[in-house]
Structure formats: C-alpha cells, structure tokens
C-alpha cells in the first residue's frame, strides 16, 4: 500500500481553470497557488495521485525486478 498526501489550505472561493474536483479550492502555500492555477505537469508531479503513483512504481520495481 502506498499513500500520497499534499499539505494545503481550502480557499473560500474557487480559483483557476486547470483541473477538476478540489483543484480550484486546494491552495498550496509552497507554490502560492491552487492546483487549478498550476501547469498540468507541475500539478501532476505534486498531487497526491502523482506521489502515490511514483511510490507504487518504486514498490513494484523493488518487489518484482
């Protein structure tokens, strides 16, 4: 099992157009923007899904290589 987590804050109103779900309201202090304001490649590299996917690949390589 792997887990991806992102530390952020919830905005009072949606900000940004790039994304869906919680992306417009999830503010990332490290970037000073919401997920919906970030370029797709930055968003994917720093999202909880991106973190979990990288961890899963590493785990699979470790166990099955």
Structural features, described:
The protein has helices at residues 40-46, 48-64, and strands at 9-10, 26-28, 33-34. The chain has 65 residues and is α+β, with helices and mostly antiparallel strands. The chain has a three-stranded antiparallel beta sheet, with no helix packed on it. A hairpin with a 4-residue loop joins strand 2 (26-28) and strand 3 (33-34). The longest helix is centred in the last third of the chain and has 17 residues, at 48-64. The chain is elongated and about 45 Å long. The mean pLDDT is 94.
Topology diagram in text:
Blueprint: E1 9-10, E2 26-28, E3 33-34, H1 40-46, H2 48-64
Antiparallel strand pairs: 1-2, 2-3
Helix pairs in contact: 1-2
